[in-house]
Amino acid sequence: MNKLNLLAAIHSLAEQRARAVLSAIGIMVGAIAIVLLISIAQGVRKDITQQVNDLGVNLLVVLPFRVEEGSMFMPNAAGLSYLRIEDLERVRKIAGVRRAAPLVFVGGGIRAGSNQSPQTFIIAAGPEWFRIRPVTMQEGRAYTPEETGRVAVIGSIAKKNLFGDGSAVGRSVTINGKQYRVIGVTEDKESEGSLFSMGSFENIAYIPYGNFRAESDEPQLHRIMVQTEPDREPKALRQAVESALGERLERETYSVQTVDDLLKLVYKLMGILTWLLTGLTSIALFVGGVGIMTVMLMSVNERSKEIGIRKTVGARRRDIFQQFLCEAVILAIVGVGLGLLVSWIACVALYLWTPIKPLVTTDTVLLCLGVSIGVGSTFGLLPAVNAARKDPVVAMRHE
């Protein structure tokens, strides 16, 4: 590209600063939307990955619905669970299974006097769960298989909501109208700064599954968590667990997933959402491109005399075309540069003052740059072609 054409483009934009800035705003808004949404989605993905990895690597999860590989359709995901205690016992007898624990999502609320912790998730879990997923106790201890009374282990977030900075061990909480004695509080690591801290394993109240089953006569299990022996790959045992469950259950009523399988499902869902959001926000870039094209088409008509003079002193069609195309690309670069700057400031603000932790990657920045410059170039072609085709004699007559 001729350096003279580039300098002419920069000089022309400098003379029309206000119009140039307004033209770049559309690209800036589109760039902000793309970077922010993708970065937030990447941050959420990292957060979920950390939550799943916290479960452990040698783990199988029995779900009460069918998950088909490569499909997002899970027909029984919101239905009843057909998993029962006898299925748990079958799984425990499989060679290579170290431990298996039942989990039941109890629902309801937890309170201590007038204090409530409304976002605390209540789970009835077998005592084996605390050995499958070892926890550090802030105070107290976890319940044992021998304990049959109404005891509870709560997370540090729930403890803070209910008892403030005081000790929780030995104090009573009310769960769904029943009194439970707190015997332990799990230690919160770094999840309070996480978007999912309110649904993490630190904001859970655990009650013994045996006691819950005896008092509520609830037959169904919502999850069976299976820990394999250290020398056995979870994938190698998945078929054995599926076969054991298949002795009583229909194949469509359960599935056995590894931690990797769960992450693949999350990644697929997040990928679909990310590209959907990117497609929607690209509309803003399209509008910005149309704005550049409209302003430049007007500029071509207003600068007809300038074009005519350049052609009469030796400028070729190619030179005029390059000048106007350069102007469009420069507008796009300015717009995306401003957009990246504003996006970075917004991401830092979100990271510091909200539970949302955006993750800005090089790929996201390059994608935004490429798409924005591509849009600017594409929508700058028509004005550039119109300018290059102008007859110098007719252009000189234009006032």
Concise summary:
With 399 residues, the chain is of the alpha+beta class. The chain is 54% helix and 15% strand.
Structure notes:
- The protein folds into 2 domains: 179 residues, no CATH class; 167 residues, no CATH class.
- It is 54% helix and 15% strand.
- It is α+β, with helices and mostly antiparallel strands.
- Helix 2 packs antiparallel against helix 8.
- Strands 1, 2, 3, 4, 5, 6, 7, 8, 9, 10, 11 and 12 form a 12-stranded mixed β-sheet that branches.
Principal-axes geometry comes out as: elongated
Low-confidence stretches: 190-199
Distance between the termini: 30 Å
Q: Supply the helix-strand structural class.
A: alpha+beta
Please write the string of helix (H) and strand (E) elements. HHEHEEEEHEEHEEEHEHEHHHHH
Mean pLDDT: 78
| Rg over C-alpha atoms, rounded to the nearest angstrom | 31 Å
Number of domains: 2
Give a quick account of the main beta sheet: strands, pairing sense, barrel closure.
12 strands, mixed
Annotation field: number of helices? 12
Counted beta strands:
12
> Can you give the helix content as a percent range?
40-55%
Proportion in β-strands: 15-25%
